[in-house]
Amino acid sequence: MKKNLVYAIVLAVTTLFAACTSAPDTVKTSQTDNAAYKASIEEWHKERINNLKKEDGWLALAGLFWLEPGENTFGSAPDNDLVFPEGKIAAKAGTFILADNQVKVKLNDGVEVQLDSKPVQEALVYTSDSVEAPRLKHGPLTWFVIKRGDKYGVRLLDTESEVRTTFKGIDRYEVNPDWKLTARLEPNVSGRKISINNVLGQTSGEETPGALVFTVGGKEYKLDALKEGNQLFVIFADKTNGHETYGAGRYLYTDLPDANGNVTIDFNKAYNPPCAFVTYATCPLPPKQNFLPIPVPVGEKAFEGGY
């Protein structure tokens, strides 16, 4: 009887000792993994901020001017068709000519403007074959032609823009590893397209590789994705929009699915669209099927001083 009692005590002490010595390693490993993960998110966010603050980043956006067929004058004088910032370019700088799905620029005499780092007086700056329009530059200003649907416009950047020079960062939720989820890609086998609206009220049909299906709190949700290069792009909305996060939803990217169709979708990398910072972007909006009926309390919050 005594032997059994002694054996039981020894076994209990040994088990307790083993638990005490092994538990900290388990906790330490978990804490180390979480710390490394949080550090990776911080590094990602740092790069995100650096990109925003670049001279040609979204924070430098200072104007978007839609062209009418024919001649469109530009300069800092208020009677121009395209009014550039006062004091940063000549009052009458030149003219954009929109005709036959092409845009030409003519600079007035004495106006010094560079086109792709070379002085220019007249040039073709947009054609239907343009992949990326050339950039015109004068002082802190850079501008180039964009096309949205059947509309042609001139996008203006200003390295001295108030939004860029006063930018202090973006408030965020605390990083939560629980919102790094494994999803599966539900392939689009029917060839359907997603209807995407933008802030201009335009609608386009976009091809989709399928929907990302994931589980939160025991319930299944899905988000239609777009393919951009070697990544998937997701435009989504959730219950935090409008009071904690930007009202028109957020964006995130994922890697392409692996051989088993699995995708890691990390909502800690959910970020604000450019329209959260400036009024001159043409942001796509979440399609109605990408409105999540739950809050996603991670990623970027609404930008204080945004629109």
Relevant terms:
single chain; 307 residues; alpha+beta; Tumour Suppressor Smad4; 2 domains; 6-stranded antiparallel beta sheet; 18% helix; globular; disordered N terminus
Give structural notes.
With 307 residues, the protein is α+β, with helices and mostly antiparallel strands. The protein has 2 domains: 60-165, Tumour Suppressor Smad4; 170-290, no CATH class. It has helices spanning 2-53, 162-165, and strands at residues 61-66, 70-75, 82-83, 94-99, 102-107, 113-115, 118-120, 122-126, 136-138, 141-148, 151-158, 180-187, 193-197, 203-207, 210-216, 219-228, 231-236, 250-255, 262-266. The strands form 4 sheets. The protein has a 6-stranded antiparallel sheet with strand order 1-11-10-9-6-7, with no helix packed on it. The chain has a 6-stranded antiparallel sheet with strand order 18-17-16-15-12-19, with no helix packed on it. A 5-stranded mixed sheet has the order 3-2-4-5-8, with no helix packed on it. Strand 16 (219-228) and strand 17 form a beta hairpin.
Question: In brief, what are we looking at here?
Answer:
The protein is 18% helix and 35% strand. With 307 residues, the chain is an alpha+beta fold.
How many helices?
2
Helix content: 10-25%
SS strand fraction: 35-45%
Mean pLDDT equals 90
| Main sheet properties | 6 strands, antiparallel
Distance between the termini: 79 Å
